[in-house]
Each structure stands twice: as structure tokens, then as C-alpha cells.
Design brief:
With 220 residues, the protein is α/β, with parallel strands linked by helices. Helix content is 36%, strand content 17%. It has 9 helices and 8 strands. Strand 7, helix 8 and strand 8 form a beta-alpha-beta unit. Helix 1 packs parallel to helix 9. The radius of gyration is 16 Å and the shape is globular. The protein starts with a strand and ends with a helix. It binds phosphoenolpyruvate (PEP). Phosphoenolpyruvate binds next to strand 8. The site of phosphoenolpyruvate has 14 residues, from strand 8.
């Protein structure tokens, strides 16, 4: 199983031209990467404009609604995303839990819809209660991203030993680490803490730094 490195662009960059520039820089920078799967999760609106086929990049989204279609103003379904070439869906990110009041029950419904559609869910959790509740009734192995809230966007990454402890408690084959990852600490989460990939926020908006992160994991 290849490690995966997921870029969560959040609500960035501010305009499409910048998004294309960023996407192309990363795509060019990882042409020789063989051992890592790289997934870019841009804002929904940019997805159709990013020519991932040209590069060794996969597309992901930062959320997806649980219904396929209907009267759900403002929402976007997994099927719509799949139709545009999306393969992965981040669900339960702490920002969605915090600002949009997403509960484990809502996240559970979204994960089920993503699975039915044939896409790969990436479930973000900060603790084991969220893991258990979000996956109630789901037997398929999903990708888990352990993201301690104190480490997200703060520049204060979780220590390798603490992350490793948590990784060992999550009995899933593919567990990613997320929270202030940079090119200096990236490889340690894989080599020393046993994670099978990374979820990268802030550093994924800097193409040089993001490519460096990917290369350090590819070489590790
Ligand atoms: C995230 O948004 O999931 C994240 C880990 O952000 P950052 O890398 O900026 O901490």
C-alpha cells in the first residue's frame, strides 16, 4: 500500500488563476514520484478546471453531501464529484465540525454515501470517540486521518511519540497524520510513528514546500 499525501487547500487560493498555478507547480514538481500517491483537494468550484490527467495527481474534495440529488440548496453530491474525476473525499474535518456543526451522525451518513458511490472516504478524527461514532455500521475499511485539533494550522505539530501512541490505537491499515506538517517533520510521521500518509493544510499552498514534503516521504 502506497502512502498517500493529501493536500487540503481549504478555501484557498482566492482566485482560479492562482489555483491553476499552484496545481501545475505541484504537478510538475512530482513527475518522478513513484512511491507516493498525491491527492489534491481544492475548493469544489476549482475541481473542473484542474487538469489532473496531465499529471501524476489525484483529485479529492473537502466534503460531500449524503444524498445523490434533490432539494438540498447549496450541497454537492458524491456522484457529481465522481463525474468530475474526484476519487477521494475528506469528511469530518475539524473545521467542518466546528464551524458547520457537523456531528458524528452527519459524518456517518456522508461516509456511507461516499462508499456507495465508489469513492474513497478520508475520515478526519481527533479522538477515538469520533472514530467509533463516525464509523457506526460501516464495515468497509476507510482511510483515517488523525488530526489533533491543537496541531491544525497552529505551527505546533503533535510530537512523534504522542502521534505514534494514537496511531497504534487506531486499528485501521491506512492512517494518515495531519497537523502542522512541514518538510522537516513529514518523514518522521511515516518512518518513526508508523503513519501511511499525511494530510497537509497550510504547507500544501506553498508548492516548493509541498513538493519537498512529498519527496522526503518518497525517499524515506
Ligand atoms: C488540515 O487542515 O487538515 C491541516 C492539517 O492543516 P495544517 O497542515 O495547516 O495544520
Amino acid at each position: 500500500m502506497k502512502p498517500i499525501i493529501v493536500a487540503n487547500w481549504k478555501m484557498n487560493p482566492a482566485i482560479l488563476m492562482e489555483a491553476k498555478k499552484l496545481f501545475n507547480s505541484v504537478g510538475r514538481g512530482i513527475r518522478n514520484i513513484k512511491k507516493v500517491e498525491v491527492v489534491i483537494c481544492p475548493p469544489f468550484i476549482y475541481i473542473l478546471h484542474l487538469g489532473h490527467v496531465k499529471y501524476n495527481l489525484r483529485l479529492g474534495s473537502q466534503d460531500a453531501f449524503w444524498e445523490t440529488k434533490g432539494a438540498y440548496t447549496g450541497e454537492i453530491s458524491s456522484q457529481m464529484l465522481k463525474d468530475l474525476g474526484v476519487e477521494y473525499v475528506i469528511l469530518g474535518h475539524s473545521e467542518r465540525r466546528r464551524y458547520f456543526k457537523e456531528s458524528d451522525e452527519i459524518i456517518n451518513k456522508k461516509i456511507k454515501a461516499v462508499i456507495v458511490c465508489g469513492l474513497k472516504p478520508i475520515l478526519c478524527i481527533a479522538n477515538l470517540t469520533q472514530l467509533k461514532k463516525s464509523l457506526r455500521g460501516i464495515s468497509k475499511k476507510v482511510i483515517i486521518a488523525y488530526e489533533p485539533v491543537f496541531a491544525i494550522g497552529t505551527g505546533k505539530p503533535c510530537s512523534i511519540s504522542q502521534a505514534k501512541k494514537m496511531r497504534n490505537k487506531i486499528k485501521y491499515p491506512q492512517v494518515l497524520y495531519g497537523g502542522s506538517v512541514n518538510s522537516k517533520n513529514a518523514a518522521d510521521y511515516i518512518k518513526k510513528a508508523g503513519f501511511k500518509g499525511l494530510l497537509v493544510g497550510g504547507a500544501s499552498l506553498n508548492p516548493k514546500e509541498f513538493v519537498k514534503i512529498i519527496k522526503t516521504v518518497d525517499e524515506s
